[in-house]
Amino acid sequence: MERRKQSRIKTNNLSIVVSDGIGPSQGLVSDMSLSGMRINNLPKRLHLKTGHLSVIISQNTKLFRMNAKPRWYLEKDGKISIGVNIKNFPLRWREFIQKYENQPGCSSSTISLGNDRLR
Length: 119
Fold this sequence. Notes:
Layout lengths: L8 E11 L4 E9 L3 E8 L9 E7 L2 E15 L2 E10 L2 H11 L8 E2 L8
Parallel strand pairs: 1-7
Antiparallel strand pairs: 1-2, 1-4, 2-3, 3-6, 4-5, 5-6
């Protein structure tokens, strides 16, 4: 049974930088919503016990910097996947997500957010 408050938007592995306060790590967002996201392909060295993360997403000309709280993690093949709640999001993030949420079937559709890499 689905317990999420918002629909998830599947992405084509959007690039993200995650920082645990010790150092940055590169990962890939596989799905996202206004208040959360699933991040894959992160290194095991990421310290989740701090209870808070900083995330930066770059998409075309947009840059989103947010704080997030880890909710769960899964370790496999030397990498981890995590689910996070976004603690504070800018208005532009809400507008960005709503653009896709208002499309019929957004929870099962896949959108391409470009392949910009963080520099």
